[in-house]
Design goal:
This protein has a domain at about 30-90. The chain contains three helices and no strands. About 70% of the residues lie in helices and about 0% in strands.
Length: about 90
């Protein structure tokens, strides 16, 4: 017969959004999270630039895919590599 601590909330009291957010944070942590955030920011800014100045880049599916691959991929990879190097340097 274990007594429960009334000051701590039970699992049923937690909102559902916290469970998927906690699961996502369990998968994406550290350098991977930094890379994903940098990629999302780069994609958002590139799409904003495409929408803001349609004369420079045509708005079509191919352009959007190139934005995702080139801008998101390169910035995400660079941010992940820098964050990984920082974590490894901190271990020494």
């Amino acid at each position: 017969m274990a007594e429960e601590n009334p000051s701590l909330p039970s699992q049923s009291d937690a909102p559902r959004s916290a469970t998927w957010l906690a699961r996502l944070r369990g998968v994406l942590h550290g350098p991977v999270l930094v890379g994903v955030v940098a990629a999302l920011i780069a994609i958002g800014l590139s799409v904003f630039g495409m929408v803001r100045n349609p004369d420079a880049t045509p708005l079509n599916l191919r352009s959007l895919l190139l934005v995702v691959v080139l801008a998101g991929g390169s910035w995400g990879l660079i941010a992940w590599a820098i964050a990984t190097a920082a974590v490894e340097a901190g271990k020494d």
